[in-house]
Design goal:
By secondary structure, the protein is an alpha/beta fold. The protein has a domain of 216 residues: Ribonuclease Z/Hydroxyacylglutathione hydrolase-like (Metallo-beta-lactamase, Chain A, 4-Layer Sandwich), CATH 3.60.15. The chain is built from ten helices and 14 strands. A seven-stranded mixed sheet has the order 1-2-3-4-5-6-7. The protein has a five-stranded mixed sheet with strand order 8-9-10-11-12, with no helix packed on it. It has a two-stranded antiparallel sheet with strand order 13-14. The chain starts with a strand and ends with a strand.
């Protein structure tokens, strides 16, 4: 489905197999040139759907001159490689996202780093290998592509008669960016702000200094100060009232953090143990991906509590443990 969100500016809704069932790409048209913001996921029929939607407005994938990526999760970048092959488009992303993409292209190194990271957080060998399988599957869906330029925070880019500002918004993913069209007061938000659910937050297994939740909350504060009439997200309906949505998301994270803190005591626990305590018997009905996401979620809130000085981190037998001081 294709929907015009502004003059010669379109939202293209594409399929994906995960819980949200869809992802949006955005096409900005200037004469015979098209700038595509995110690409959707490489799935049977997805490219044909994108081609048909572009054809319905008199364009083709061969006219895509520029691809701008908010981040390199597979549902947002999956067709970047094939579209670049077809159109020779210039591709633009942030330097951190470029680094993340490079990690996914070196799968053996990525798997080795993942084994070290999750073992250090108390994940048993069998569960580590389940995580490795999930990472291998994700890696297989992230394409090779050539990067023509690295985006800088708050820089202004032009496409035809329009200009837009690059806004760094790490949290959901390291290096995540949004695109702000100031004249139209619209934000292409990627997965930074969604209308119905709070975006998941991701650790950077190569950079444990990176704090997903504090970084995300700081990013929300930046967006909150901008004059935005409409948010166009990567999933769900476009919406107004961004300040109210930000308040809801902040409250959600505060409640989640407080709930997790109750599972921490004077007895040191690993991230895996805390996660297991939280999900309990429900884990029996969860697939490996859901367990992986729950573990990431637990890590994010534990690190936030450590960052705030509420809990302390110790090392026992080479494994990181957390307790109330």
């Amino acid at each position: 489905m294709i929907t015009e969100i502004s003059d010669n500016f379109y939202r293209i809704t594409l399929p994906m197999p995960f819980r949200l069932r869809h992802v949006h790409a955005y096409a900005l048209v200037d004469g015979r040139d098209v700038a595509l913001f995110d690409t959707g996921m490489i799935l049977p029929g997805a490219l044909e759907k994108l081609e048909a939607d572009l054809e319905s407005i008199g364009c083709s994938t061969g006219q895509i001159s520029d691809i701008y990526l908010t981040h390199v999760h597979t549902d947002h970048c999956g067709m970047a490689g094939i579209l670049q092959d077809k159109s020779k488009a210039n591709l633009h992303l942030s330097e951190v996202v470029h680094q993340v993409h490079s990690h996914f292209q070196r799968v053996d190194e990525l798997i080795g780093q993942a084994r070290l990271f999750f073992t250090k957080h108390g994940v048993p060998p069998r569960d580590v290998e389940a995580i490795v399988e999930e990472i291998e599957d994700v890696s297989s869906r992230i394409p090779k592509f050539e990067v023509q330029s690295l985006l800088r925070d708050h820089e202004v880019r032009r496409f035809g008669s329009r200009s837009f500002e690059v806004v760094f918004t790490p949290g959901h993913a390291a290096g995540h960016v949004c695109f702000f069209f100031r004249d139209e007061r619209l934000l292409l938000a990627g997965d930074h702000i969604l209308p119905y659910i709070p975006p998941s937050l991701s650790p950077n297994i190569y950079d444990e200094v990176f704090q997903p939740l504090p970084s995300y909350l700081q990013s929300l504060a930046i967006i909150e100060k901008m004059s935005i009439d409409t948010v166009h997200p990567g999933h769900g309906n476009s919406f107004s009232g961004v300040e109210e949505r930000i308040r809801e998301i902040r409250a959600h994270h505060e409640l989640k953090k407080e709930a997790l803190q109750k599972f921490l005591t004077a007895r040191p626990k690993t991230t895996f143990e805390v996660c297991s305590d939280i999900i309990g018997n429900a884990a029996a009905n969860w697939d490996d991906w859901e367990k992986f996401m729950a573990l990431n979620d637990t890590y994010v809130y534990i690190q936030a509590l450590k960052h705030e000085g509420v809990i302390q981190e110790t090392i026992q037998g080479g494994v990181l443990c957390y307790s109330v001081g």
